[in-house]
Amino acid sequence: MSTEKLRLAAIDLGTNSFHMVIVEECQEKGIVEIDRVKDMICIGRGSISTKKLDSQAMEEGVATLRNFIVLATQRDVAPHNIIAFATSAIREAENRQEFIEMVKSETGLKVKVISGREEAQFIYYGVRNAVTLRDKPDLLFDIGGGSVEFIIADKKKPYLLESRKIGVARMMERFLRTDPVSVHELKLLQQFFASEMYGAASKAKELGVSRAIASSGTAQNIARMIQSGKDSDSADVLNQSGFSRQEFESFYRQVISMDAPARRKLTGLDEKRVDLIVPGLILFDTIFRVFNLKEVVISDSALREGMVIHHIANIRGRDGGGNHDIRRQSVMELGYRCNWHKPHAEQVARLSLMMFDELQPLHELKERYRELLEYAALLHNVGEFISISAHHKHSQYIIMNADLRGFSPTEIEIIGNVARYHRKQPPSEKHPLYFQLKPSHRRAVDVLSGILRVANGLERGHRQNVQSITARLQPERIVLEALTRFEPDIELWAVESLKPWLEEVLAKPILFEARIQ
Question: Model pTM?
Answer without folding.
Answer: 0.85
